[in-house]
Design a protein that fits this description.
Elements (H helix, E strand, L loop, with lengths): L4 H5 L16 H15 L4 H8 L3 H13 L3 E3 L14 E3 L5 E7 L3 E7 L5 E8 L5 H17 L3 H5 L1 E8 L7 H4 L14 H6 L6 E5 H12 L8 E6 L3 E7 L2 E3 L13 E3 L5 E3 H4 L2 H10 L6 H4 L9 H25 L4 E6 L3 H17 L9 E4 L6 H15 L7
Parallel strand pairs: 3-6, 6-7, 8-13, 13-14
Antiparallel strand pairs: 1-2, 3-4, 4-5, 8-9, 9-10, 11-12
Length: 403
């Protein structure tokens, strides 16, 4: 993460949150300081006081406590021309750990991340389609296995589990290749309760694409601006909405359900974005050409050669559809950027972003300031990272995160 990323993301180049020196606000101020250090990387106490508006005494008290709690690390003293040397403070990587569980349409991933958002360990379970019993059994088994690899102090610093999954999975049997009625068990499954009763830490739940958007918000280094619409290209395509440096979840927690937006399908008709710009759409093209699409789900880092014409045709069609969705979204909310990420290799993502920007430029945007298409900075595992950022945002951050 760039040292001045928070400043560039705020409306006027300044940290948009202020502390308070009133009594009884210590927990808020601690979260504020931790969020500032997450964005800036490393700061001395006087810089923190200046940026947050807190008194030097208040900052000193907060920093001493956070350091005593193992959440901060001291850097090397920096000597200036006059006065005492300043000591930069930064987040301690092993200050807190978080689990993130992504329940996807083709696989489940369990990730352990540290306080800096770095993945320390990951386990995966592939399947033809997700079923509750097998998926939750994998989650508890993977958590036990991962915890066993940690020492006692590390294990004691696990702060929670976040779960990212598509809402209403039972509505998608055909799209997932599941037999009719096979996914009905999800309708009666309370994931938070089922996992919470066998884990010693809290469990949080969010829509998978919205969680991926949250990962970009919390851990991303891209200059997204304070308001952006987010697209995650997976088996299906989903998204999220960020307003004023915070994830906007909406009334039901499903804001940013951009996969349901109607867009031109490239054949003179109109379809939902999910039918045009998802990897499932690419898989159908590959199958129609007699190619095996399984590589799409196996590795997001590199796709084998030999399919370039099909991939290029999909990129062109998906880019036009994403551009239409991004401009339509900007007509409602004046988004600065349209961020695109997904379970796709970085070179493919780059080509998709460039094609989307060209497609935005070709649309009639009279009366609008069209958003700028840009690549996300988290990558294929954004959903698992976003899941893990749920307990982080709930307990240790303010501003850029889940509201």
């Amino acid at each position: 993460m760039e040292a001045d990323s928070a400043a560039s993301r705020s409306a006027h180049g300044h940290w948009p949150h202020r502390g308070t020196n009133q009594t009884g606000m210590r927990a808020y101020n601690e979260r504020l300081v931790l969020s500032l250090l997450r964005s800036r990387g490393s700061l001395a106490k006087m810089d923190i006081a200046r940026i947050t508006g807190l008194s030097a005494q208040t900052v000193s008290v907060i920093m001493r406590q956070l350091e005593a709690d193992g959440l901060l690390l001291r850097g090397e003293p920096q000597r200036g021309k006059v006065g005492q040397p300043s000591i930069p403070m930064s987040l301690a990587p092993e200050g807190v750990f978080f689990f993130g569980l992504k329940i996807g349409r083709r696989s489940a991933d369990l990730a352990l991340i540290d306080f800096l958002g770095r993945i320390r360990h990951m386990l995966s379970l592939p399947y033809p389609y997700p079923m509750p019993a097998e998926t939750l059994a994998f989650a508890t088994r993977a958590i036990d296995e991962t915890t066993a690899r940690m020492n006692r102090e590390q294990a004691a610093r696990i702060a929670g589990l976040g779960v990212a999954m598509p809402f209403q999975l039972w509505n998608w049997p055909g799209s997932l290749g599941a037999p009719e009625g096979a996914l009905e068990a999800w309708r009666e499954t309370d994931v938070v309760a089922a996992l919470g009763q066998c884990l010693p830490f809290p469990v949080y739940l969010h829509n998978d694409a919205t969680a991926a958007c949250g990962a970009e918000l919390v851990f991303g280094g891209a200059q997204t601006g304070r308001d952006f619409v987010y697209f995650y290209v997976g088996s299906f395509i989903g998204g999220g909405v960020v307003l004023g440096d915070a994830l906007y979840s909406g009334r039901t927690g499903n804001a940013g359900a951009i996969g349901s937006m109607l867009v031109p399908d490239g054949e003179g008709g109109v379809r939902q974005l999910i039918e045009v710009a998802s990897l499932d759409a690419l898989a159908r093209r590959l199958e129609a050409a007699g190619a095996e699409p399984e590589f799409l789900w196996q590795s997001p880092d590199r796709w084998p050669g030999g399919h370039e014409p099909i991939v290029e045709a999909w990129i062109a069609r998906a880019a036009r559809a994403i551009a239409a969705a991004a401009v339509s979204a900007a007509a409602v909310i004046d988004f600065e950027t349209a961020v695109i990420d997904g379970w796709i290799p970085a070179p493919v993502r780059t080509r998709l972003v460039e094609a989307t920007q060209r497609a935005i430029g070709a649309l009639d945007t009279a009366g609008l300031e069209p958003p700028r298409a840009m690549a996300g900075s988290v990558g294929p595992h954004a959903r698992a990272l976003g899941a893990a950022s749920l307990p982080l945002s709930e307990r240790f951050s303010i501003g850029r995160g889940f509201g």
